[in-house]
Design a protein that fits this description.
By secondary structure, this protein is an alpha/beta fold. The protein is globular, with a radius of gyration of 19 Å. The longest helix is centred in the middle third of the chain and has 23 residues. It is 51% helix and 12% strand. Helix 8 packs antiparallel against helix 9. The termini are far apart.
Length: 336
């Protein structure tokens, strides 16, 4: 069976390797011809996970049509800021029943739509979509280090299909019907990881990181609850699991960017050096749309947005955060 993977960044490359190692043929779409050439000729991605030798079952291409030709499923692993463009491209390449799993993590800036909503609008048949998210650093998954992930969708049949597709001895896949919760957790954890990175970059300690991580989890839970997701999702792999991994690991581009930003590196400089989109830098802006729509306080998200995009001095932003009015630990959740 052939599977199309759209996006040859680090996560797309790692998931392609998971599938290729299971014996599936993989059509891997990459934007740059030199990446395609290197993967097909040397079985290595020259930009991401460069030490990993990739399965010969992976064939790269710059053509959406070629990647999807004869495929039985599509895996989308592209930055969130181009997800509608990707959905429009795929709409002309696949039929209305093709199962599609989305690994993009973010919120559409103009509309506040989550990835499944964007793809369903452009491609129809919402029941054929699922989302995949969890504490899954590509650098470890590509090496077969044990990990777990969550696959959520409207259709139990679609979820079960992708659950089986990705499951290996090293990757446990868990099912969920909470698409909203999983997608919001996926976007949110990157923002909190930036704040944790900033705290370490300023020389603060583990107490500060723990404060930001747990209060970030509270922000995540308030928004998930307000948007109709399940707060319990925030305690699982897509929420707490991914939050811990992203905030505490040096594999995390968002945590590392936060550290570097606190020490004077700009967002553009960091992205130019790493060839990676810092999803949390986008999400701290796009989540504001949902914060306003649902009237949910997101103080850590607002801090990150103010210093990354509005040139607010980091020390002053932290001072404002620490001087907020004192509250009950758990507030703003449905059912209180």
């Amino acid at each position: 069976m052939k599977v199309a993977v759209i996006g040859a960044g680090s996560w797309g490359t790692a998931l392609s390797q998971v599938l290729g190692a299971k014996g599936y043929n993989v059509g891997l779409w990459a934007r740059k011809p030199e990446v395609v050439r290197a993967i097909n000729e040397t079985h290595r991605n020259p930009r991401y996970l460069t030490d990993s030798v990739l399965s010969e079952n992976i064939v790269a291409t710059t053509s959406y049509a070629d990647a999807c030709n004869h495929a039985k499923a599509v895996v989308v692993v592209t930055p969130s800021n181009i997800m509608r463009q990707v959905a429009q491209q795929l709409a002309s390449c696949v039929d209305a029943y093709m199962p599609v799993v989305l690994c993009s993590k973010g919120v559409e800036a103009e509309t506040g739509c989550l990835p499944v909503q964007v793809f369903a609008e452009e491609m129809g048949s919402p029941e054929r979509f699922a989302v995949l998210s969890g504490p899954n650093h590509a650098e470890e998954v590509v090496r077969g280090i044990p990990a777990g992930t969550v696959i959520a969708g409207e259709s139990a049949e679609t979820v079960a299909f992708f659950q089986d597709l990705f499951a290996t001895e090293a990757l446990r896949t868990y099912a969920s019907d909470d698409v909203t919760g999983v997608e919001l957790c996926a976007a949110f954890k990157n923002v909190i990881a930036i704040s944790v990175g900033m705290s370490y970059g300023l020389g603060y300690g583990d107490n500060t990181a723990s404060l930001l991580l747990t209060r970030g989890l509270a922000e995540m839970s308030r928004l998930v609850s307000a948007a109709g997701g399940k707060p319990l999702t925030c305690m699982g792999l897509a929420g707490t699991g991914d939050l811990v991994a992203t905030c505490m690991s040096h594999h995390s581009r968002n945590r590392t960017f936060g550290e570097r930003f606190a020490q004077g590196t700009t967002l553009q400089q960091y992205q130019d050096e790493t060839h990676m989109v810092v999803e949390g830098a986008l999400a701290c802006k796009t989540l504001e749309t949902l914060s306003l729509a649902y009237k949910v306080e997101l103080p850590i998200t607002a801090l990150v947005r103010s210093v990354v995009w509005e040139n607010a001095p980091l020390a002053q932003a932290i001072s404002r955060l620490m001087h907020r009015p004192l509250k009950q630990e758990f507030y703003g959740m449905k059912g209180e």
